Every structure is written in C-alpha cells, then in structure tokens.
Amino acid sequence: MYQYDQYDQAMVDARVEEFRDQARRRLEGKLTEDQFKPLRLMNGLYLQLHAYMLRVAIPYGTLNARQMEALADIADKYDRGYGHFTTRQNIQYNWIKLDDAADALADLAKVEMHAIQTSGNCIRNISSDHFAGAAHDEVADPRPYAELLRQWSSFHPEFTYLPRKFKIAVIAAEKDRAAMRLHDIGIRILKNDAGEIGAQFYAGGGMGRTPMIAPLIRDFVPLDQLITYAEACLRVYNRYGRRDNKYKARIKILVHELGAAEYTRQVEEEFAHMLSAGVEPPREELARIAAYFNDPAFVDGPKTIDRSDPDFALWVDRNTHRHKHDAYVSAVISLKPVGGIPGDATSDQMRLVAKLARDYSFDELRVMHTQNLLLPHVRIADLPALWAALDAAGLGSPNMDTIEDIIACPGLDYCSLANARSIPLAQRITERFAANGRTGELGELKLKISGCINACGHHHAGHIGILGVDKKGTENYQLSLGGSEAEDVSLAKITGPGFDEDGVIAAVETVTDVYLGARQDGERFLDTYRRIGMEPFKEALYG
Amino acid sequence: MKILTGNDLGSGAVTWWNGKGWSLFVDDAVDVGEDADEILARETAARRVNVPYAIEASIDAAGHVRPAHIKDRVRALGPTVRRDLAVPTAGKTGWDWVI
Ligand code: SF4
User: Residues of chain B whose C-beta is under 8 A from some C-beta in A?
Assistant: First the structure.
C-alpha cells in the first residue's frame, strides 16, 4: 500500500504543529469559538453532544496492521477504549479532549495518518471498493487512481472553500460496492473496446436532504487526463454551485438545475481549456504510486474448504468473497454482533484484527462503507484458524448483507445534528431477527438507518431504509423501501406516515412478512419489491 | 424553568450553570429566569464554555431537573446505548425520562 514520501510527511507534520498552536490559543482564550471552529473542523475535530469528536481519514479504506494498532492506542490513550467505523470508511473517536487533540494528531502522523479534509467544504476522503486489489471482477486496482486523486485534492488551493463538501468514489468493476453513483463524483475505471484503461465519470449524485443518482457525464476519459477531467468538473461546480443556500449548494443541485447535458457541455469546455494548461501529473507519478499497490506474493494452496462445522460453513458462505487468486478469499470481519452497536470496535478488537491482518492477509486491512472490516487476501487454508480467532473475540458474526448487517449512523446518542436515535433500532431489530430465526431465510436484505436527513446511514439506499425525524419533540421514524446503492442503484420510497420506535420495528417485520409471502424463486427482497411495487407493503402496514 | 448549558472548552463535557459556575450534573442546574441573557453574555465572553445556551426544563416528580428537549436529556446523561459511559451521577436522575 501507499507510503508517504517526504512531502506527504512534511505536510502532515506541519499541520499538526499548526493545530497545536491554534488549540493552545483557543484554550488560553485568545480565540473565540467562532474563530476556532473552522480551524478545528479543518482537522476533523467536531463538537458533538457529549464531547469533541475526532474523525480520522482512512484513504479509500485501506490501512495496515501498524496503523490499526495506532488507532487502538489512540482509543486507549485519548478516548474511552473504542472507536466507530463510518460509512465513509473513516474512524471516529467520541470523547477526545481539546487538550489532547494535537497529541492524538501527532500520534496519527507517526503512522502516516491524519484528520485533514474530514470536514469542511473541501474534497473529502476518497472512498473505494473495499475489495479493491483483491476482487476477481475488477479491471484494475482502483486504489492507485484514488491515491492520485487524494494527492491532487489534498490542500488544493482552488478547492479548499467549495460551495459545499465534495465526495468522490472510485471503483473498477461492474459491481458497485462503494455507492459510487451516490457521490458528488463517481469514477469507474474500465477498459474500452480497444483494451485501453480509462475512467467513466458520473457527477451530481448524493444522499442527504435531496437524494440524487449521478448521471453519466463522460464514458471514457483516458488515464493521462484523469486529473484534468476531475479538475474541470470541480471548476464548473466551484464557479456556479450555489453559495447563497446551504441546502442547494451541493453539486447534485447544480447538475439537476442545469441538466446533465448542459453541465457536461460546460465541463467539456473547461476540460478542453485545461488540457492546454498542463495540470495533469506526469505518467511517471501514476506509475510511482501504482508500484505501491502491486499484488503481494500469493502462493498456491488448497481451494476447497472443509465444511463439516456448520457454523464455520455458514460464516464462509456469508462473509467471504471470491478473490482474483483461486487459493484466496477476502474475509469480512463483522462489526455487527446481535444487539451490538454497528461499526463500533474496542481497542482490543482493533489490535486482534491488526494481528490477524499480519498473520493472514499480508499486513493489509480494509474498512468497508458497511461499517465492517475486511481482510482482503486470506488463504483458503487459513480460514478455519481465522474464523476461530474472530469468533472467540465476538467478531465472527456470519451476517454480511443480511438484515443483521444493519448500517446505522451514530444518531441522537452522539450526534448534535440528530433528530432521533439510530443505534437502539439497529440493536433491537438484530435481536428480533436473531430470535425469530428468519435472517437466513430472508437472504440479502440491506437495512440502513439515519438519525436525520443528512443520511449518513444511507437510508435512501436501503432495501429497507429508516429515517429518524423529530415529531413535536419525540422520536419518530419514516420507513422507506426499494433503495439500492449497488450497480442497480435506486432511491427508496417512503411507505407513508411514520412510526414510533416500537412501531417501526414491528413495521420492519411486517414488511419482511409481505416479502416472504410474495417472493418468487431466487428473488431478493429488492427484486420482489420491484416486481410487486409498494402497494402490498402499504396495505400490510396501514391497511 | 430556564437553565443554561454548554460544553466545557477543554474536555468538551456537557456542563450546566449552577449559579456560580459550571457543573457536570444536570441536577445542579438552577433556574436563571430573566438573567439568562446577561449570564450567557458574560460566560461567552469568559470563553470557558463553548457556545452556552438557554433551554427550557422542569422538575420531575422525583425532584430532578428534566430538560424539555430529548437532545438535552441525552446530553445530560450520556449515550443511551453506552450506559457504562453515563455521566457519573446520572443514576440519581434515572434513565426513564430520556425518551
Ligand atoms: S445522519 Fe444525521 S444524525 Fe446521523 S450521523 Fe449524520 S448528521 Fe448525525
């Protein structure tokens, strides 16, 4: 994986010292909160309900064991022994003290990590397919391109004060495992008919208050023009994106209001102009970066699995993913135990996962946008030992993409923007379905919960989505159905009036009953919903 | 009643105006009535607490201070899903009124 060069390290180290001075001046009362807030946010330090929260960037979700151990150490040294992995492949600490924040950032810098651009109206952490570099179905590893974009976007002077935050995802397979079309810019690396690798650009997607699916704006950008094209997309947005209304400032509104064709025309015009400006980094730079992402030294080995232990076999079926080398798989480490807090991991669990990455996955780990962790390269022969270690640590839940693999944002338990709590719903729903034994029968069923319209819990893209709203000072929940963030992307539709906490849990069960009663052979929940439509579900919920 | 709350500058911890200073415990909050704006202006200027603000609250049947809005009730006690991390004396207020 990528390693900092002297420039990367110098930039990050300088930022730590700059922030140390800013925090000191704030603590001495020399800066007001109004003056300090934008400075701390530029370093990922939010003020949430109970304390400061530090959001640390994990570029395209990739990290090594040493970095994971450093994250565990920070959880113990400066926080309360745990961290929360997010839907943007980052980690958040919930209890950081301002007095300690610069020290925490300095510890991060020692392992080539930081919290820069995890807040503010800039280009945020670039996300990617969690199976990148391991998946059997990718045309290339998307991470070198994500890393090139990371370097281009870090401290980019023109894009530090955009109209609004800006999120980019890069994938390199037909299957979309990164919600690519629900990003401000989605990039798919692909091969054209001539066998050349290039990039397909989608622009203007997003969730939040006004969810939009990004339209395709260019179906092939040659790789030696990738940055130039991205720069053209950003320039048009930076020039015409609305700054007068926060709720209309995202690129999705601009693309929607101009129309995809007109936005594209303007981007193409800017692109033609930019091509002569020479902003593209030299090809050697991409080659230099790509060399960090070469395959590890895979070795041949057994390709079959002893399935005599049914618990192990279930975990293999649900939590492993086909690898490009047939003696390996990628193994999902679930952070969704029944009744647990989605995405939370203790420092001990982080250290164990780091050790397992060293022992079984070439020192490599991934954070998934589903709030789970992943060992990308595990020998099939090592699976029994890996599973035993995970299971003993409460990390062996066999539930990937099932109703027990719920995405839930921190919600009103932590987040100052929340209307309602998300986590207790996830806990109770997983308990309900673990008890009624229907998880397996339901198959793939993605349930996603957000505590407010900002949609960090991706509820618009849930097969079943739940949104917390404030109803006269009490928590209320809107249910929606039919969303997907995968290659069959769609936005969920609201079923009707909202429910209280007990009501929405019962409603989820009702919806699954309708599905089980109506499904035809091989249909997932989403397929049945798309075939029969909303009415039967509405009838069962409100009829 | 009207009470004042904010987050401590250094720790970020939720604090409540107790008439003389800032306490970690909601039960220590005092009714500031008409003095809210004056105290807020003074405390904001002193920069010990981040953006303090006034909220409505009541005294519940057991005699405890109960913020009117759920968000401030969650702030008063800590995350409802991590009761092990609750504000230390939250037990004396009880969890039943969070929701
Ligand atoms: S969706 Fe809302 S409540 Fe949930 S984490 Fe995001 S901003 Fe907070």
Answer: 7, 9-14, 46-47, 50-51, 68-71, 74-75, 78-82, 85, 99
